[in-house]
Design brief:
about 280 residues; alpha+beta; Nucleoside Triphosphate Pyrophosphohydrolase; Transcription Regulator spoIIAA; 2 domains; four-stranded mixed beta sheet; 7 helices; 13 strands; elongated
């Protein structure tokens, strides 16, 4: 367990990469929003709403209202798809943020070629003896198939706030209702990752809520995106991270939880809840 700080530091360093070569800063309606790849720029350069300078690419004039931005970004998504630049069309809208403002909605698959900010929420779930729940991603997943992940997690879509996103993912991926999550922390932002991907640039805030599940809780996947749910010791989780069996995002979430000792603080709260009085809590 002494290797956790060094392992965490190495992973932190690996997620801070500069934008892909020849990418340019991207503004939408006059606000800095992302970094567009050369391939994406070539595909949309002909659009009247796109203006290109030596130092940046600008989509839509400053102050363009949402009712104009939404269809414009929908058209851009289709153009990128038809150009073969999107990984997997999801038919799911995400919020487009620029300088902290919610500007519009856009197809999820188009976020990376434009280097737009996304938000990923994770439930880091513990047993009362401070072992970890982890979930194996189905082989049909477009990203990291067959790797282990936190019990529940995913991107917040454009129709929900972050708290609702976490509860939705927890229900879909672990079959757990909100009333089981009585001992958990509020969502907190761990970090913002910047990674070069084949399809573009990942700019993503990673948020986590740690939770101790009661002994009667039985996580069970509901959406077919998880092939197995397992309980592992903290030592096993660290070894799996070192062996790269756990996704990068999940590894950061899990290691940070161990370093911050959040679960130990939660355990005191869990034991104090009347419904948990008398439960065995032998710490591993």
């Amino acid at each position: 367990m002494n290797r956790i700080p060094a392992l965490y530091a190495a992973l932190l360093q690996s997620i801070q990469e500069v934008p892909p070569e020849f990418s340019l800063p991207l503004t939408i309606a006059g606000k800095l929003a992302g970094f567009i790849t050369p391939q994406a720029l070539k595909a949309i350069a002909h659009l009247p709403a796109v203006r290109i300078t030596q130092t940046a690419v600008h989509i839509a004039d400053p102050g363009t209202p949402r009712f104009e931005l939404d269809p414009l970004l929908a058209d851009i998504s289709v153009i990128l798809r038809d150009a073969g630049l999107l990984k997997t069309w999801r038919d799911e809208l995400l919020t487009v943020y620029a300088e902290g403002e919610d500007l519009a909605k856009m197809e999820r698959a188009a976020m990376r070629p434009l280097g737009l900010l996304t938000h990923a929420v994770h439930l880091n779930a513990w047993t009362p003896d401070l072992q970890l729940y982890i979930a194996k991603r189905a082989m049909t997943k477009a990203t990291d198939p067959g790797m282990w992940d936190t019990l529940a997690g995913g991107l917040a879509n454009g129709s929900e706030d972050l708290e609702h996103a976490l509860l939705r993912e927890t229900l879909e991926e672990a079959g757990l209702q909100e009333n089981v999550l009585t001992c958990r922390t509020p969502l907190r932002t761990l970090l913002r990752m910047h990674r070069r991907l084949p399809e573009g640039y990942q700019v993503e805030d990673i948020l986590v809520s740690d939770c101790i599940l009661p002994p009667h809780a039985t996580p069970c996947n509901m959406d077919g995106e998880v092939s197995e749910i397992r309980i592992v010791s903290q030592q096993q989780a660290v070894q799996m991270i070192a062996d790269r069996q756990i996704t990068l995002e999940a590894a950061l979430v899990i290691l940070e939880g161990m370093l911050s000792r959040t679960s130990e603080t939660l355990l005191a709260r869990f034991r104090a809840q009347p419904q948990n009085q008398g439960e065995p809590h032998d710490k591993q």
